[in-house]
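Q: Convert this sequence to structure tokens.
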Amino acid sequence: MYEIVVKQDIAPKEKLLDVYAPQIAKKSQAGQFVIIQTHDEGERIPLTLADWDTERGTITIVFQEVGKSTALLGAFEEGDSIFSVVGPLGRPSHVEKFGMVVCVGGGVGIAAVHPIARALKEAGNHVISIIGARNKELLIMEEQMRLASTELIVTTDDGSYGFHGFPTQVLKDMLDDKKPIERVIAVGPVPLMRFVGLTTEPYGVKTIVSLNPIMVDGTGMCGGCRVSVGGQTFFACVDGPEFDAHLVDFDGLVKRQRAYLHQERCAMDRYQENE
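A:
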């Protein structure tokens, strides 16, 4: 059992949990994730690590309540315990001194890109982070991202805060201005990651996206997280979660993500009826 030592409501339907898991905290690296089960018969859900503290023995996860399992997790309070936390899983981000790097985070993807930006900055890179949300109310972890970056640019779809528009518009302006960008990393909703890749491809800038398709065991045994990259099949849990955005079959990824929408809606409806 893994005790929740801190719980914060950071935006509507978005929660931050610090969970006591000292062995996981000791081994965690940027880009990795954990698999969580709220109870012994619960669904296994992948959540990217937003942070960790080896001295306190805690890991930080950020999630949005979108289905039954995340709703159950969001109902937990400080002092409650999660049944199972497995990790760290996945390959760590490739971190070295590239030069100028742009990190793009959208929605709860901001939490996932946070440790990547920090690691790249610590490696000596000039890190420009672009974080975006639909509106100011939904923007998360601004101060943490400011500390993890050399420069921070905030965007909102409705213009309620920062740049009025999408992160890809800011990124394209940088590329048009011939900024010496060596690498782009994007984490967020699939449409955002797809369009980041489409934005950078004409400029030949290496672009990495973090994929979270349907996962079950998180160890490569079930095959539920199959993704096609460059015409080859990979398992996002063990071969990723990071892949070259210019090679990902996003059409196939979207289809896989929608495969169980009906079942997910039914489960959520039953949960809400029994609340």
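The chain has two domains: 2-89, 100-257.
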